[in-house]
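Reminder to self: tokens first, then the designed residues, so the page reads top to bottom the way the pipeline ran.
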């Protein structure tokens, strides 16, 4: 059974970088 983080790593994504981008997007929406 695969979780989202493992799936992202398999596809070559850095989960921490994705979370940074999500946090940036949240800050933009909170303005």
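Designed residues (31 positions):
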């Amino acid at each position: 059974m695969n979780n989202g983080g493992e799936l992202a790593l398999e596809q070559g994504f850095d989960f921490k970088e994705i979370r940074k981008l999500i946090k940036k997007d949240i800050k933009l929406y909170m303005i």
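The mean pLDDT is 70.
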